[in-house]
Amino acid sequence: MAHTKAKGTTKLGRDSQSQRLGVKIYGGSPIKCGQIIIRQRGTAYMAGDGVKTGKDDTLYAVKDGVVNFKKIRYTNFTSNKKTKQMVSVVEKPEIRNQKSEKNPKTEIKSEKEEVYVEELKAETKEAMSNKSKSEYIKEEQPLKNIPQKKETKK
Q: Which residues constitute the domain of residue 30?
């Protein structure tokens, strides 16, 4: 004999989590290397220049630039013509110039500081050329005979 009474079954609680697919960064938006552009199942969008496909068909950027979408016509394996969207990352000329320029924060030195730094470099080069290797070794060796205070017991 059963110890619990008969219970009804429920049809709830078995819904799966959403996969959050779709376009993450739209056309004309700036993008950095490694950022995901599209999450998809299958190849609704094709990878163009500067874009690679992940193992789950995710499209991601391989270089910094701006996202560009364009429609292309292609022939599939059954020789039918189809249109798909191709995603590519194009470098802007502004981005190229920013990479080539040096960091402006490091170049805020005054002329006096630059001259002083150059003089120091010249002095160190002269000092290094005048010394022999044995003199460098003597300077680098730690002092061994340092007198230590002896504790006396009272």
A: 22-98
* Paired tokens of 13: 């609680």
Number of domains in the chain: 2
Distances (CA, A) of 14 to 11, 18, 21: 8, 13, 20
Q: How far is CA 116 from the centre of its chain?
A: 37
Which CATH number do you get for residue 47?
Answer: 2.40.50.100
Q: What is the pLDDT of residues 77-108, one digit of tens each?
A: 999 999 999 999 999 766 555 555 555 555 55
